[in-house]
Automatic annotation (TrEMBL):
Organism encoding this protein: Penicilliopsis zonata CBS 506.65
Amino acid transporter transmembrane domain location: 35-453
Keyword annotations of the record: Membrane, Transmembrane, Transmembrane helix
GO cellular component: membrane
Compartmental location: Membrane
Name of protein: Amino acid transporter transmembrane domain-containing protein
Transmembrane residue ranges: 35-56, 62-84, 105-125, 131-159, 171-189, 240-261, 273-297, 317-339, 360-382, 388-411, 427-450
Membrane topology reported for the UniProt record: Multi-pass membrane protein
GO molecular function, one term: L-amino acid transmembrane transporter activity
């Protein structure tokens, strides 16, 4: 092929010095466009799997094995489509950095304000659940060496320090280092490389999954001389509030989609985004199905939440010990994303965004510190893992990973549809699909929030209303 016939690569995809979001990329400043294909997959998987997988077995206990698997696959398919639409919208609107930019394009100032608030709240609550998970892990590893409120504060302080790393490219290396510590026991090294990439998401959960199958009985089951027989159910028999709260848990497990906007914005080549989404979601769904089914099958109604406590004893201590680096990475990501969101919106269009000025650093540390403090308060006031996860999934999950994506497709395809396109069955089906996604999101939000609030009220009642900022051991 001669030089003049080589395919031309758009300057905004590779090798550019100017970006529609970050402006001029300077040599003396941070490179915000330095995430490759596998780095993208890793960040997406870590955004999805870090916390959500820990609540799946208990959700199956409420729903039953068959309805739970069906709900998991349906939610996985919907969020895969949503994630793909994020990339399509980004390629058509290059100035989009986050979900609120999409809201501004579609609905103006009102759309930006609403989705900005929802986005920040969603990730702040995620950061709070990460802090709570870390406090549970620190309690388990240390056999409750000190007050739980102290562990919550320690997790918040370390999370603030790690989330203050400025670029996702460097956080990718942090994630890899955390996984390297975990993979000192990489028992599946002879598996096919594709399956290895799936299991690379959270091997500690895989280890606990194997352990519950090898032990005589789950940790929470009553001691008895008779052989343990799991009481797992094909179909659950719980009430409406418990059922919809469990569905919200599953939705939370797949609700990393809003973070994909930020990730694709920092990719070196956004054209690879679609393949990265499919790779991520395939791995996530596979891990969720295996972990959820195996743990629930062996533990039945005595499955723990977070799931790492299901094996109990030494296995619980070891599993949390290996999991702590990964949980810290998860907290780093879910704290970094909203902090970066606010940071960019404050400095966008100024030289301080990509230059190492005092204004740059003061603004950046203020963002990460503010997010961490609010997340610490949430973790201290809603100290029950299942309740917090369910509330996030119900109240903020639909508006973050379902409804806006339906609206984005309608925005890009409704007004531009000519008479021939509008008469095609595919166009009608897509309009119906997007409308269904938006309506379904409203139902899950209202019903799921009701179920989650009822569960929180019940939790406070059972603890005498003294659970907030408690010193009690939350790992038992």
């Amino acid at each position: 092929m001669t030089e003049d016939k080589k395919p031309q690569v758009p300057s905004q995809l590779e090798g550019e010095t100017h970006d529609d979001v970050f402006g001029e990329i300077r040599e003396d400043g941070p490179n915000f466009r330095n995430v490759g294909f596998w780095g993208t997959v890793i960040l997406m998987m870590k955004t999805q799997i870090g916390l959500g997988v820990l609540a799946i077995p208990s959700a199956l206990d409420v729903l039953g094995m068959v309805p739970g698997i069906i709900c998991m696959i349906v939610i996985g398919a919907i969020t895969t489509w949503s994630g793909y639409i994020v990339g399509e919208f980004k390629m058509k609107h290059r100035e989009t950095y986050s979900i609120d930019d999409a809201g501004s394009i579609m609905f103006g100032v009102a759309g930006r304000l609403f989705l900005s608030a929802a986005f920040c709240l969603y990730y702040i609550f995620n950061s709070g659940s990460a802090i709570l998970s870390l406090s549970i892990g620190l309690n388990a590893v240390s056999s409750h060496a000190t007050c739980t409120a102290v562990f919550v504060s320690v997790a918040a302080i370390v999370g603030f320090a790690l989330s203050s790393i400025r670029t996702l490219g460097r956080i990718t290396w942090l994630a890899c280092l955390g996984w390297f510590a975990v993979y000192s026991f990489r028992w599946y090294s002879n598996l096919p490389s594709a399956l290895n990439s799936f299991l690379d998401t959270d091997p500690v959960v895989i280890m606990v999954t194997i352990a519950v199958g090898l032990e005589d009985r789950p940790a929470a089951a009553p001691a008895s001389d008779s052989p343990w027989v799991s009481d797992w159910k094909v179909v659950g028999d719980s009430g409406f509030a418990e059922t919809i709260a469990a569905v919200s848990n599953l939705l939370f497990a797949f609700s990393g989609t809003p973070g994909f906007f930020s990730i694709v914005s920092e990719m070196r080549n956004p054209r690879q985004y679609g393949a990265a989404v499919i790779t991520c979601q395939a791995g996530v769904t596979l891990v969720y199905t295996i972990v959820g089914c195996v743990m629930y099958y062996y533990c039945g109604s005595y499955v723990s939440s977070p799931a790492l406590g299901s094996a109990g004893g030494v296995i619980e201590i070891v599993s949390y010990g290996f999991a702590l680096p990964g949980l810290f990475v998860t907290m780093t990501i879910v704290t970094h994303i909203p902090a970066k969101f606010i940071f960019i919106h404050l400095l966008r269009g100024s030289r301080h965004l990509t230059s190492n000025t005092p204004t740059h650093w003061i603004t950046w540390f203020s963002c990460t510190f503010g997010i961490t403090v609010v997340a610490w308060i949430i973790a201290s006031t809603i100290p029950v893992f299942d309740d917090l996860v369910s509330l996030i999934g119900a109240l903020l999950g639909p508006v973050m990973c379902m409804q806006p994506m339906g609206a984005m497709w309608l925005y890009d395809n409704w007004g531009n549809a000519d008479r021939r396109t509008a008469s095609q069955p595919r166009w009608f089906l897509m309009v119906a699909w997007c409308s269904l996604i938006i309506v379904l999101g409203f139902f899950l939000m209202v019903a799921g929030t009701y179920g989650s609030v009822m569960s929180i009220v019940q939790s406070y009642s059972s603890s005498g209303g003294s659970a907030a900022f408690s010193c009690a051991n939350n790992s038992s």
